[in-house]
């Protein structure tokens, strides 16, 4: 499955809910399904700046060229948001991640239904995922 296909599936999942309270509940459920990040990565180096709540993100680059993410947050909605991003981008190459359009977030209405601070946090999470992808791409090319 491509990233675009995953994004389309997420848009379809969110379209099943009529109001944003149901969508928030779904985000919270996604957060509960988030694979646990190892405690050693819950440190300042893996903390994403720009988020109101604390969010830790770790990435590993396998021999197959794919990047796998783990994360955690101390806030349930934020944990759901980072889980949604990991569900979308984990298991893909740096190029696949960097060449992906993020408009699925507008399609599900996420950006318009987040507070300004959560919206900034979302952008910070996306930037951090892309930063990991750029770093691993540079490492591959050297």
Give structural notes.
It is a single chain. This protein is mostly helical. It has one domain (3-141): Sufe protein. Chain: A, CATH 3.90.1010. Helices cover 54% and strands 12% of the residues. The protein contains six helices and three strands. It has helices spanning 3-15, 20-33, 76-89, 94-98, 104-107, 116-141, and strands at 55-61, 66-73, 92-93. It has a three-stranded antiparallel beta sheet. β1 and β2 (66-73) form a beta hairpin. α1 crosses α3. The two termini are 29 Å apart. The model has no long low-confidence stretch (mean pLDDT 92).
* SSE-based structural type: mainly alpha
Write down the overall geometry: globular
Mean pLDDT: 92
Helix content: 40-55%
Number of strands: 3
Q: Let me know the largest β-sheet.
A: 3 strands, antiparallel
Under CATH, the topology is which? Sufe protein. Chain: A
Count of the separate structural domains = 1
- Proportion in β-strands: 5-15%
Order of helices and strands: HHEEHEHHH
**Low-pLDDT residue intervals, each spanning 5 or more residues:** none
Q: Give Rg in angstroms.
A: 15 Å
What is the CATH domain class? Answer: Alpha Beta
Summarize the structure.
The protein has one domain: Sufe protein. Chain: A, CATH 3.90.1010.
